[in-house]
Amino acid sequence: MITLLEDLPNELLLDVFEYISGRDLYYSFLALNSRINYIVRSLKNLSLMIYKNEPLLIQTFADKIFRLQVSNHYDITDIDHFPNLRSLSLYNANDKQLDQIRYDCMPNLMYLFILIPDITESSEKLARNIFSNQLPSLRYADLGLIDVNCISLSSWSPSLSVLRINCTKSVVIRMVLLVCPNLKRFQVNLLKNNSTIVTQLPTKTLNHNLKTFILVVSCRPLPLETIDDILLGIPNVTKMYLHWYCDTLFVILARMLSERLKYLRQFGCNIIEFPNDIKHNNIKSIREIHSSFNSIQCTTTYHGFRLFTADGFPGQANLFG
Question: What is the model's pTM?
Answer without folding.
Answer: 0.88
